[in-house]
């Protein structure tokens, strides 16, 4: 199945419009963004009425929201040395889990870094570990999966690094949601094999972000102009049982953005369809 990252569409569109456009472009579901902006974080406090209306919209349009990219922890990180911020991070986590439960979202992608706007230390890393354990127990209560995103920072830029937390926390509700572009860049940094790294997470990868990158550049790289081998990446992920993929790219004001959605879907779906032949 192929999901569409919400930010690939203009932010001012309504949910109904976004879902209709995603369906028309032949996507199977949409990934909701809860980033660090006040507008997106406010979604965590949606009223019951708003939640029900969104569920009805999903059913009416015929395409669901099934994953959530929770990048709001960049501003309120789980490992922050500021206790008010780290407590806020857990509050955000709990609200996100409850929202996911209400909307039928299966997997929440969580950022694989202890802190972002402050220096990482042994204390922030320890606090991150302890708060992830708390978050996993929250998720277990509602039956929601939490998947680490492999990031652009060295703290958790590979699947292999994420596996340290998977093994030590040891919960079926914690897994990995790798970013194809980020692990590709990490492989250049360490001189390692990106496909071996992906396979190191066998049995623990919930989904895969299909994102293009260039050496040292992690965002807003158009598909086909970077260095990610999507065919080999998807083939490797497929071989270890991954069946859900999300195209991660951003709307940048391009007037042909709807065509981009369709063309990218066709490109990735062609690769996936070959896996089932």
TrEMBL record:
One Pfam family cited in the UniProt record for this chain: AP_endonuc_2
GO function terms (MF aspect): intramolecular oxidoreductase activity, interconverting aldoses and ketoses; L-ribulose-5-phosphate 3-epimerase activity
Signal peptide: none
UniProtKB keywords: Isomerase
Protein's UniProt keywords contain Acyltransferase: no
Domain Xylose isomerase-like TIM barrel: 20-260
Protein name (record): L-ribulose-5-phosphate 3-epimerase
Species this protein is from: Thermoanaerobacterium xylanolyticum (strain ATCC 49914 / DSM 7097 / LX-11)
Taxonomic lineage of the native organism: Bacteria, Bacillati, Bacillota, Clostridia, Thermoanaerobacterales
């Amino acid at each position: 199945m192929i999901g569409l990252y919400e930010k690939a569409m203009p932010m001012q569109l309504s949910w109904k419009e976004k879902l209709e456009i995603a369906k028309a472009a032949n996507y199977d579901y949409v990934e909701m963004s809860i980033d660090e902006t006040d507008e997106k974080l406010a979604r965590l406090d949606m009223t019951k009425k708003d939640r029900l209306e969104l569920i009805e919209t999903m059913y009416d349009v015929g395409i669901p929201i099934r994953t959530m990219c929770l990048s709001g922890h960049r501003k309120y990180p789980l490992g922050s040395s500021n206790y008010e911020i780290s407590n806020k991070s857990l509050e955000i986590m709990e609200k996100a889990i409850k929202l996911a439960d209400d909307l039928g979202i299966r997997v929440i992608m969580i950022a694989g870094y202890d802190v972002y706007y402050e220096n990482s230390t042994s204390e922030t890393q320890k606090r991150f570990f302890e708060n992830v354990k708390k978050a996993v127990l929250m998720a277990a209560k509602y039956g929601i999966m939490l998947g680490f995103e492999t990031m652009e920072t060295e703290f958790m830029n590979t699947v292999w690094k994420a596996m340290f937390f998977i093994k030590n926390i040891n919960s079926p509700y914690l897994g990995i949601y790798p970013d194809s572009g980020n692990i590709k860049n990490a492989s250049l940094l360490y001189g390692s094999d990106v496909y071996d790294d992906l396979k190191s997470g066998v049995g623990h990868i919930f989904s895969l972000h299909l994102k293009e990158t260039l050496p040292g550049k992690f965002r807003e790289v158009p598909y086909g102009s970077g260095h990610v081998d999507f065919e080999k990446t998807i083939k490797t992920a497929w071989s270890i049982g991954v069946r859900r993929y999300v195209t991660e790219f951003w709307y940048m004001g391009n007037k042909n953005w709807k065509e981009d959605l369709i063309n990218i879907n066709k490109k990735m779906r062609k690769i996936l369809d070959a896996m089932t032949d």
